[in-house]
Amino acid sequence: MEYLNNFVITLVATIIFMTAVEIIAPDNSMKKYIKFVLELILISVMINPIIKFFTGGEQEVVKIIKNYENMLTQGMTSESTSEDISETQKESFKKNLNSNCDSMLKEEFSDMDFKSNVECTINLEDMTYSIDGLEVGVKESGIKIVDKIKININDESEETVSNEENIENEEEIKKYLSEVFKIPVEKIKLYSMGG
Questions:
Q1: Residues 33-63: pLDDT tens digits?
Q2: What dihedral do alpha carbons 9, 11, 13, 19 form, nearest 10°?
Q3: How far is CA 48 from the centre of its chain?
Q4: Helix residue spans in the chain (DSSP H)
Q5: Which of 107, 145, 109, 135 is nearest to 191 (CA)?
Q6: How far apart are CA 176 and CA 56, in angstroms?
Q7: The predicted structure's pLDDT at residue 193
């Protein structure tokens, strides 16, 4: 901003100087030469900032960029920031793993919808992970046949509704997940998401 102020002050001072010289100059054949020289001075004043930018301004731009890079580097190396970044990376990895699991199950069992929740331990240094448990919500599409409903209505008896929800293809789904993620079937739990 200071650079722009200095340029404007210099430009205005030059124009005032030119006007004063034109007023003082005599009206003869020399006036056109004096006007030519004054216009050259005005052009040099206007071009001066452009020349400064290409000679020294380029280094200023590079200097500003390096300062910005140093600020970013210092911010990234602080411990709290690196811990935040690693937690964000772990959460992102888990989210992607859940999404991929849902997609693979949907491809294999197209008549069902899935919602996965993978519990895993992630080591970002070695880029490895181990799955501790896998919970998958299963929602069967279409109309479901009700297995058993039993209602007893007497004077003071309670209503009893019994409907045990068994997931169709439960063993196949568990076997598929066990093969894909190379984990024991015991670590896989399926639950019905309702319909």
A1: 888 999 999 999 988 887 776 776 667 667 7
A2: -150
A3: 43
A4: 2-24, 31-52, 58-77, 79-108, 170-181
A5: 135
A6: 66
A7: 76
Q: What is the pLDDT of residues 65-91, one digit of tens each?
A: 787 777 777 765 555 556 666 788 788
Mean pLDDT rounded to a whole number for the chain: 77
Which residues are paired to 19 by β-bridges? none
**Measured distance CA(39)–CA(31) in Å, rounded:** 12
Q: Report CA torsion sign: 63, 68, 73, 79.
A: positive
Q: What percent of the chain has pLDDT over 90?
A: 9
**Residue 5 to residues 8, 49, 84, 117, Cα–Cα distance (Å):** 5, 12, 44, 61
Q: Please state at what angle helix 58-77 crosses helix 79-108, rounded to 10 degrees.
A: 80
Distance CA 11, CA 23 (A): 19
pTM over 0.85: no
CA dist list (Å): 97 to 40, 113, 166: 70, 16, 26
Question: Any idea what the Cα angle at residue 135 is, between residues 134 and 140, rounded to 5°?
Answer: 130
Residues 19, 14: Cα–Cα separation, whole Å: 9
